[in-house]
Amino acid sequence: MKAFQIQNLLRVGTVAAALALSGVAAQAMPGGGHGRHGGPDAMMAGGPLGGMGGFGGHMLDLVDATDAQRSQIKSIFQAARQDLSGQRETGAKLRQQLAALYAAPNIDAAAIESLRQQMSAQHDAASKRMSQASIDAARVLTPEQRAKIAALAKKRQARMAERAEQRR
What we know:
Elements: H1 3-28, H2 57-62, H3 67-103, H4 109-140, H5 143-167
Helix pairs in contact: 1-3, 1-4, 3-4
């Protein structure tokens, strides 16, 4: 096998293994990988407004969200979680298939690439659904509440960046 082919195979293998491991780690998280604590208030990390698009229970406290707003937002993320619940089993099957391909006596790069594409499509669909849930939740809040969440998220990101810099 040529050196280029070996490097290519190693790259594909590294990406596929990383995808498989990240999927296993996500499934090991409470709530199947839907945020740091698995609850509806920890659903989506890293959105433009912070965790769960900025709609975590703590953030809702800080912007004085009404009970009606909290209820609506909770319902939005519960519906999204329900929509995505079937993907856990599919993802687990894909990861099992990937592990079997890597354990085979001969590496089938085409089959591994096909699984990678399927896993990527599944991740993209989940990301799209959660993005829509964040948009729907943002529409429940007033512009002032959203601005306050964005400002708080910006401060939080700055603190996290500062801590990361201190560790270097």
